[in-house]
Amino acid sequence: MITVRTRFAPSPTGLLHIGNARAAFYSALYAKQANGVFILRIEDTDLARSDTQYVDSLQEDLHWLGIHWQEGLGVDGQHGPYWQSQRHAIYLHYYELLVQKNLTYPCFCSEEELALERKLQLSRGHAPRYRGTCRSLSAAEIEQRLAKGLKPTLRFRVPAQEEIQFIDLIKGPQKFNSADIGDFIIRRADGTASFMFCNAIDDALMLVSQVLRGEDHLANTPRQLMIMRALGLQQPQYGHLAMITGDDGTPLSKRHGSYSLSDLRTKGYLPLAITNYLGRLGHGYESLQLLSFEALARDFNVNKISRSAAHFDLNQLLHWQKMAVSALDGTALWKWLGPVIQKQVPEKMQDKFVEAVKPNICFPEDAVKWAAILFHHRLHFSAEDIQILRQAGEQFFVEAEQAVESYGTDFKNILNEIKKALNLSGKNLYMPLRIALTGQVGGPELAQVADLLGPERMRERFSRAFHIASGKEDAQTL
Ligand code: GLU
């Protein structure tokens, strides 16, 4: 049986964002599902744009997401090196082979000339395509130009009338005519390998069996297949993922907000929230549960990847974030909350605090708010809060304070006392208590709030509510 070998091949020119994280994730799930190998390869031949800081951050991001590779950067394997900048000798060999087959030629056209050509073609409504200016230069003409010190690129000679077909794993059968494809650059003027070339060579040499990547690469695929076929190399199957769009239907970009993995992590998103969201961003899962990487891999099916654009829905991501938060145990939650909270919450209250706020928070900053309310702040009341306290009336808080005298923080008894004394129930009973104790209309269970506040602070807060209800505290100071 052929081993499934998938890969993620980022160019380290920026931070990992939701779009390429999804390609990486699906490739990893594909390999895992088939008990195969997932490879990480760094496509850094464009030295001017590549930066090793991005290699470090993307490795960190992938590990954080729980995506691990069995071959590639830092792991090694039989097909390295896994930095393209270290594979120059390999590429030279394959250039040689193509030169021998007369499938290449040097091109001396300048950037400016090419840009002008493209502009002209576009203005005439044609798709830009190299016209083949240097295709038929004689040996003498080439010599002449080299003698002038001109540095040529190397182009692949695209065969005249050839149909390039392949079955895309996601989009189905694809057909391209070579007549629509201009001769393309496989080596830059500075001698480095172009993306089109090294990406194809490496997928073939690394025995990649399936490539999952963004549909922005679809037009590259026939070119890359031509290179592999010309060299008699093994070709992977390709699957092109439809793009991710923002609310306005355009491809997700910086304009829609920052969706780099490191920003999401800094904001407090949990890795399981991201992976569960990514897993469903253009791929169907029957389960509505929060799934582990293994479970997501088990039910991953390339046939369940949608052909149409996936709409990035922040509410969905927040839904998975809530699920991921509620799946954390107390210790993990405490750690995730971070040092700010850890300083604000008295040590002996940690467990109770975590349990109380867990259903009410999405991010650590939400817990900061609750820590301030429960342990530090003089409460701030809105006009509506004040109205509720006044409607409840002075007697309500007299009873409440007395109940705390009698029962401490035993909330059930406190409630019963007030209920009995004033014949109140439901919202009329709960809401004034909640507002008086927290200054909020929602939040943790009141019994837990009481426990965290302690009798002293409860009495203080009821006494203040009494003053507000009686109109003694000036509304301006509230
Ligand atoms: N280095 C390319 C990129 O980051 C890889 C494309 C591919 O997956 O083939 O877009």
Give the overall pLDDT as a whole number: 95
Total DSSP helices: 20
First-to-last CA distance = 73 Å
* Low-pLDDT runs: none
Beta strand count: 12
- By CATH reckoning, the class of the largest domain would read Alpha Beta
CATH-wise, what's the superfamily of the largest domain?
Answer: HUPs
Rounded to the nearest angstrom, the radius of gyration is 32 Å
The CATH architecture of the largest domain is 3-Layer(aba) Sandwich
Q: Tell the overall outline.
A: elongated
What count of structural domains? 3
Alpha-beta content class: mainly alpha
Bound ligand species: glutamic acid
CATH topology of the largest domain: Rossmann fold
Strand order of the largest sheet: 1-2-3
Range of helix content: 40-55%
Strand content: 5-15%
Largest sheet, in brief, is: 3 strands, parallel
Structure at a glance:
The protein is mainly α and 478 residues long. It folds into three domains: 87-241, 3-Layer(aba) Sandwich (Rossmann fold); 254-330, Glutamyl-trna Synthetase, Domain 2 (Glutamyl-tRNA Synthetase, domain 2, Orthogonal Bundle); 335-477, Arc Repressor Mutant, subunit A. Helices cover 48% and strands 10% of the residues.
